[in-house]
């Protein structure tokens, strides 16, 4: 998606340790016009799938998933990284290690929001090592729902996550795949 790649090159900031900051337009401050185009692109790429729910993980994926959901006309469900007093009933649980926060989270989702009748599209902002997606895949499996695919805004193609997910036979669509980050410069996969 050229619009996204151009924005990454213009406003993305490369930090030490191959960290790409896109917080000025994607995951802290959100450029809704750009994310609207991202949502349209996900709809185009998964239009053939009978999606009934979009599943993401808090927090950065929620806004993107909500914009995309308006094109699919389906609800968004998000897995939470912390137990709270207003969560009740049976839960799906899994563990997810955050690349950015260097922390393992117990991720939870109420069973009343995902079941065997659902056809799920996973949406997230980044894919690096794949831990968040693997956690969401685990929740989908536990629910008995059908996983239709995963939509990622930015994939770090030089890390293992994308290949791991594709090797599982999952339909993965990444809108911008970065093949390398060297000396502060990004190289995109065509």
From TrEMBL:
One of its GO terms (biological process) is XMP salvage. It catalyses: XMP + diphosphate = xanthine + 5-phospho-alpha-D-ribose 1-diphosphate. Homodimer. Residues 51-153 form the Phosphoribosyltransferase domain. It comes from Blautia luti. Keywords: Cytoplasm, Glycosyltransferase, Purine salvage, Transferase. This is Xanthine phosphoribosyltransferase. One of its GO terms (cellular component) is cytoplasm. Pfam families: Pribosyltran. The lineage of its organism: Bacteria, Bacillati, Bacillota, Clostridia, Lachnospirales. Converts the preformed base xanthine, a product of nucleic acid breakdown, to xanthosine 5'-monophosphate (XMP), so it can be reused for RNA or DNA synthesis.
